[in-house]
Amino acid sequence: MAGASLLTLLDDIAAILDDVAVMTKVAAHKSTAMVDDVATMTKVATQKTAGVLGDDLALNAQQVTGVRAERELPVVWAVAKGSLINKAILVPAALAISAFLPWLITPLLMLGGAFLCFEGVEKLAHKFLHAQEDAADAAQHQQANANPAVDLVAFEKEKIKGAVRTDFILSAEIIVIALGTVATATFAQQVVVLVGIAIVMTVGVYGLVGGIVKLDDLGLWLSGKASGAAQALGRGLLAMAPWLMRFLSVAGTAAMFLVGGGILVHGIPVLHHATQAAGAAVAQGALGGLWQALATHLLNALAGVVAGGLVLAGVTLVQRLRKPGVVAGQK
Question: Is the pLDDT of residue 46 over 50?
Answer without folding.
Answer: yes
